[in-house]
Description:
alpha+beta, globular, 5 strands, about 10% helix
Amino acid sequence: MPTIKIYPHPEYCPQGAEISAPAGTSICEALLDNDINIEHACEMSCACTTCHVIVRAGLDSLNEAEEGEEDLLDRAWGLEPQSRLSCQTILAQENVTIEIPKYTINHAKENH
């Protein structure tokens, strides 16, 4: 079972975290299942950028971003070449390391 190492984030996991999730699980689902309550305003339907993450290691093991995800990422705060929407990023067999950006463009944050 692959692991996801999460860099410290002041709101979601101040100490950082390392979690496991089955291959075939999205990074967003894995985070939520492990009580790391990343924003996901569109309920993981690939219609916003609130679940934006930056994949710091293991990017090549993940599924390719589709055109809809790439179009949305153009609007994400802090976009980097390794940026992905965690709701669209599916784990394979390799471990990954991610960073959750400090900000999102979500103006109406809700508790999920």
